Amino acid sequence: MATRQPEFNFPKGGLFFIIIAVAVIILFSKSTVTIGPGEGGVIFESLGDGINTEKTYSEGFHIVAPWNRMIVRKVRQQSISDEMNVLSVNGLEVKVNGTIWYEPEFSNLGKLIKTKGEDYERELLDPAINAAARSVVGRYTPEQLYSSKRDVIEQEILDEIKIVLKDQYLLVTRVLVEDVKLPTTIRTAIETKLKQEQESLEYEFRIAKAEKEAKRQKIDAEGKAVANKILSASLTDKILQEKGISATLELSKSPNSKVIVIGSGKSGMPIILGNQ
Fold it and tell me: How does this protein lie in the membrane (predicted)?
């Protein structure tokens, strides 16, 4: 006799509730967005007018309608590096390596994305950087680009970019020109010229130093000559005799054995004889 297997009766409406639960979970997952540190978000309203430019969402957890989409972009300061081929004032092609620091205006992130798209760096920032670099570098010679004008060029490029990006909801805060690459022959010529100028300055310094020393020695010699002239004019025979006597008295006090002959020297000065 066959054994009858027990039947499992699925609750009526159970499948319906499962479907509803799954749908709710999917719907909830699509309706929640977490915006990370240093980021901001704007809503793209699929059933409305597209990007909502009135509000920028800050960091944290947010719930949006499932038919809308949250566009999240970095709003903290960022940097972009690039190498540009530009022409100097005399038409020589040079390569400029630079870094730009920028950040979108937080409150106007929606307007920035609506007018320039999500890839606003490529659409807006890159052209502005290239235009500013070409405009500024075109004012200088290769020598100025290679040596002493780096900080001035950075500030001028920054000023030019700010003009181009005015009212575009994108801020550029700093420009750094890291390297200027010239053709090898031009770079070698500039380095040779700079070396020669340095050697010339060093030579001029040595000459100036020697001239100063010669002038000092001349003044010193002239001073001594004047002093000797004054001294000679003031030394009479009587003064010399008096100084000789004083010296003789000092020598006579010395413990060394000696013989002093008074009045035997020239002009009556003592003559000192001794074994020391």
Answer: Single-pass membrane protein
